[in-house]
Amino acid sequence: MANSKRDLFLKRRLRVRNKLRAVNSGKLRLSVHRSNKNISVQLIDDVQGVTLASASSLEKDLGVVGKNNVEAAAKIGSAIAERAKAKGVEEAYFDRGGFLFHGRIKALADAAREGGLKI
């Protein structure tokens, strides 16, 4: 029996997370979640189990509510880079989860890099 799309997604997500755990040297994790309508990102310290900063398309002050496009993802990426800098964070691992690295995920990562966050 063939795997469903959900099963393949879960496999990809586990594969990415396991690779990050193997090479993680105390760096923070920039975790992305994308739905059909929204996108959100969190800067997570796995050692302490704490979320240091987050940004989402649901935040009204970013001005991207209701927009699920590449420009909105870029604004969220620059917002998380700004918030990370405010917390004194310059480096993180990019955890794309099970999502493929293109479109909104890539736009978010590129904007975070342009904002000064080393991914």
TrEMBL record:
<dbReference type="Pfam" id="PF00861">
    <property type="entry name" value="Ribosomal_L18p"/>
</dbReference>
<dbReference type="InterPro" id="IPR057268">
    <property type="entry name" value="Ribosomal_L18"/>
</dbReference>
<dbReference type="GO" id="GO:0008097">
    <property type="term" value="F:5S rRNA binding"/>
</dbReference>
<protein>
    <recommendedName>
        <fullName>Large ribosomal subunit protein uL18</fullName>
    </recommendedName>
</protein>
<comment type="subunit">
    <text>Part of the 50S ribosomal subunit; part of the 5S rRNA/L5/L18/L25 subcomplex. Contacts the 5S and 23S rRNAs.</text>
</comment>
<dbReference type="GO" id="GO:0006412">
    <property type="term" value="P:translation"/>
</dbReference>
<dbReference type="GO" id="GO:0022625">
    <property type="term" value="C:cytosolic large ribosomal subunit"/>
</dbReference>
<dbReference type="InterPro" id="IPR005484">
    <property type="entry name" value="Ribosomal_uL18_bac/plant/anim"/>
</dbReference>
<keyword id="KW-0689">Ribosomal protein</keyword>
<comment type="function">
    <text>This is one of the proteins that bind and probably mediate the attachment of the 5S RNA into the large ribosomal subunit, where it forms part of the central protuberance.</text>
</comment>
<dbReference type="InterPro" id="IPR004389">
    <property type="entry name" value="Ribosomal_uL18_bac-type"/>
</dbReference>
<keyword id="KW-0699">rRNA-binding</keyword>
<keyword id="KW-0687">Ribonucleoprotein</keyword>
<comment type="similarity">
    <text>Belongs to the universal ribosomal protein uL18 family.</text>
</comment>
<dbReference type="GO" id="GO:0003735">
    <property type="term" value="F:structural constituent of ribosome"/>
</dbReference>
<keyword id="KW-0694">RNA-binding</keyword>
